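seq:
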Amino acid sequence: MSDPLLAIRDLCLEFRTAGGWARVVDGVSLTIREGETLALVGESGCGKSVTALSIARLLPSPPARIAGGEIRVAGRDVVAMSSRELRSIRGGVVSYVFQEPGASLNPVFRVGRQIRESLQLHRPDRATDDEVVRLLKLVGIPAPEIRARDYPHQLSGGMQQRVMIAMALASEPRLLVADEPTTALDVTIQAQILDLLRDLRKRLGMAVLLITHNLGIVGDLADRVAVMYAGQVVEEAPAAELLRSPRHPYTRALMQSVPELGHASERLRAIPGTVPAPGRWPSGCRFAPRCPVVRPDCSQSSPPLLEVAAGSRVRCPYWNV
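struct:
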């Protein structure tokens, strides 16, 4: 089997604070193969986005630093790359779609110009009006010749996100990182954006890393799912298997908090407590203070990530109890 397009092994990330270095990602390992979609799921503050940003070393240093581990993209060691080498993979190999497109687009430039700037950086021979229109058409924007002359504020949130996707695709990346691409969009537009990502993946053959806090949106899009909590991966499995029979108590709790059509309920089931702050993680299992099936020994030692089936790992010794 060929090497994965992305291989993260035992990644540790830290941020400098007034009280010293705070670890926000602790020993994360992930792989994505060509054409594959991996969903990285977890509550806000668990380390999903900073893990994704570290792939192309987009975190400012300082205050961030890679304290350990390895990141390889297309077989190349990202941690050891110079600034010049990093520019060759940013956009060219790995491209990003960030949440809240209204904050990511430059309000003073027309959207066509912003797409053309991406083309000039990565494919200067194709930096033409025709290519801008083709990209806008590719992401499903009607009347692309007209919309290319619009400013971001003239577009709806869904249209702005499509423009962001067009900018990301301008460099023809092999890996698209979509960080909460449906945040702040209504449910109808969310479905359209997810359908667009699914269609683009099939048509272009690119790999996708989907960052989300919502397990309810990954079933039709992801091949595999990795669940993060307090800076660690607590479960990883093929998407269909994980959604059918989640093993880790945290994964189960996340799924139980998703409303289901046709199932009346007076209240949604919430997970008690909050994600612990980086550097203030509890001893032993980090989910123990919130876990509904906690045992006395859960707070004594940190559980390893166990392989419980082919392609499935879980960080809980009581997953089958």
